[in-house]
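Our preliminary data section would be incomplete without showing what the modeling component actually yields. Below, a chain of 235 amino acids is followed by its predicted structure, encoded as tokens that our downstream tools consume directly.
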Amino acid sequence: MVLVTGTDTDVGKTIVTAAIAAAAQAAGLRVAVIKPGQTGTVLGVPTDVEQVQRLAAPHTARTLATYPEPLAPLAAAKVAELPPLELYEVVDAIRAEAERHDLVLVEGAGGLLVPMGVRPSGEAWTFADLATTLGVSTVVVARAGLGTLNHTALTLEALARRGVPAGVVLGAWPADPELVHWANLSELVPHLVGALPDGAGGMEPGVFRRSAPGWLTPALHGVIDNWRTWADEVH
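Predicted structure:
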């Protein structure tokens, strides 16, 4: 089981989730992707699970709850007067898929501490709470540019304080990186387990699936074994 969160919204969590799914399936694993709470369906754009299905075609891809407004899941549930996500129902659904698959990827909404739903007590829970409840590692998707070091460090520290192991994937490495991108890369290397090229989500699915292992380290079923070599190749 691997949870996928981000330093913020729109950092590339969905495309990274698809890439991990594609790499794992290329390695022969049966993969399930779960999105506990999908918001913003009123916008009429493809859902995150639909994007993952198109790019990676995992064995199973499902959303547990959908809400119209593009808000945090708990807020979206309240606005729509729909039942919020209940923590242990989400946990049970994930564990059930884990029994039928070799790898379950769970994609969050927004960042690590966004309110996702409620506990039986009525108290709100976050994606960090889901990580600690399941006791599994987490992938933090981060931006490559200015500001990423602080946001990434805060997220990693929050996970470390909860005893959750985590690695970082850059959601969109630019085609023409500038000094700030290289500087950030060097700072993040100790935590780095992947880097996707900018625009990866727009690739033809067959190309995406063949390319995905080359964006990730073996920790995520990829083939990158040396970031210096990787940097030389993409420079």
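The chain has a mean pLDDT of 96. Residues 145 and 179 are 10 Å apart (CA to CA). Preliminary results of this kind motivate Aim 1 of the renewal.
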